[in-house]
């Protein structure tokens, strides 16, 4: 793993942190920002994937962290606290198909930890970091001698004052459906959507953007692995690049909750207007759960 020090170059580029950024949509977003000229840091669990990124994208900072381990999360956030960043994406997720597998203790703990508990820890930390960085440049300059803010911090603030800092989380379209028999995965993603909405309201006075992404099926390796190597049968499945395009548009447009593709957004909207007994029957007997 790379050992990185905080940048001291005065020619700052905006900085992106992606939690769960070593594969799938997280990595695609990291590479997209890298191509736009951003500094990029990614956090992942598997060392093989981290080593691959170190080889293929040597300018990307990489960090290893098991998001089910509180100690590792705390250590990670301590390390990241030395880095000024402008955008954080929480892309980590865990899924077990509860239609075909009985939910056991290990799967239950893992989904709750990654989809909700670690997400809440990261968003709490990131919001505090961005609030500290959101002070106007004159306030930063006045406090330089009385705080840990450095000249480079102030320069960074000035260089990026036209970029709205943002927190982004990747939920799922499954979390937009409200019915009693939803899976743990769907309920945790629904909680993520609600949490992001609360952060958006709370951080608005600081001019910090919060956007939640609730997408349908994305043709990632993880989804293919869950479907014997081929997920093409999933309804309205989209490519990773299409997902990135939709996500970036949602960020650029400062959307609170981006639900796509349109076809699935219309379907879920219709389903939510059905009587609850009908909705429960449909979802328990007919529909697969997005992964």
Give a written overview of the molecule:
The structure is a single chain. By secondary structure, the chain is α/β, with parallel strands linked by helices. The protein has a single domain (15-285), classed as NAD(P)-binding Rossmann-like Domain (Rossmann fold, 3-Layer(aba) Sandwich), CATH 3.40.50.720. It is built from 11 helices and 7 strands. It has a 7-stranded parallel β-sheet with strand order 3-2-1-4-5-6-7, with helices on both faces. It is globular. The model is unreliable at 3-9, 137-160 and 286-291 (pLDDT under 50).
Summarize the structure.
The chain is of the alpha/beta class and 291 residues long. It is 47% helix and 12% strand.
Topology record:
Blueprint: E1 15-19, H1 24-35, E2 39-44, H2 47-56, E3 61-64, H3 70-80, E4 87-90, H4 105-133, H5 137-143, H6 151-159, E5 166-170, H7 184-203, E6 209-215, H8 221-225, H9 240-252, E7 257-260, H10 262-272, H11 276-285
Parallel strand pairs: 1-2, 1-4, 2-3, 4-5, 5-6, 6-7
Helix pairs in contact: 1-9, 4-7
Main-sheet strand order equals 3-2-1-4-5-6-7
Low-confidence stretches: 3-9, 137-160, 286-291
Strand content: 5-15%
Instruction: Find the CATH superfamily.
Output: NAD(P)-binding Rossmann-like Domain
Give the CA-CA distance, first to last residue: 29 Å
**Class per helix and strand makeup:** alpha/beta
Overall body shape: globular
How would you characterize the largest beta sheet? 7 strands, parallel
* Mean pLDDT across residues: 82
Number of domains: 1
Whole-number radius of gyration? 20 Å
């Amino acid at each position: 793993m790379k050992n990185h020090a905080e940048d001291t170059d005065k020619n700052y580029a905006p900085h992106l942190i992606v939690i769960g950024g070593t594969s799938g949509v997280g990595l695609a977003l990291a590479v997209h920002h890298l191509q736009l000229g951003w500094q990029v840091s990614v956090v992942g669990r598997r060392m093989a994937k981290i080593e691959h990124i170190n080889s293929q994208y040597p300018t990307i900072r990489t960090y290893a962290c098991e998001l089910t381990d509180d100690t590792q999360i705390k250590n990670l956030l301590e390390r990241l606290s030395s880095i000024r960043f402008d955008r954080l994406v929480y892309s980590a997720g865990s899924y077990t198909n509860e239609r075909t597998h009985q939910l056991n203790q290990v799967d239950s703990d893992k989904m709750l930890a990654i989809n909700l508990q670690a997400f809440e820890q990261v968003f709490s930390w990131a919001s505090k970091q961005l609030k500290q960085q959101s002070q106007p440049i004159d306030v930063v300059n006045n406090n330089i001698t009385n705080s840990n803010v450095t000249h480079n911090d102030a320069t960074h603030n000035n260089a990026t004052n036209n970029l709205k800092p943002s927190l982004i989380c990747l939920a799922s379209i499954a979390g937009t459906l409200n019915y009693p028999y939803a899976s743990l995965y769907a309920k945790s993603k629904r909680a993520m959507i609600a949490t992001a909405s609360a952060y958006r309201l709370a951080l608005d006075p600081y001019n910090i953007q919060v956007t939640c992404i609730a997408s349908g099926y994305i043709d990632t390796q993880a989804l293919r692995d869950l479907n014997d190597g081929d997920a093409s049968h999933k309804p309205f499945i989209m490519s990773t690049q299409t997902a990135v395009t939709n996500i970036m548009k949602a960020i650029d447009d400062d959307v609170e909750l981006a639900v796509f593709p349109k076809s699935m957004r219309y379907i879920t909207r219709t389903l939510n207007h059905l009587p609850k007994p009908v909705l429960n029957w449909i979802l328990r007997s007919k529909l697969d759960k997005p992964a």
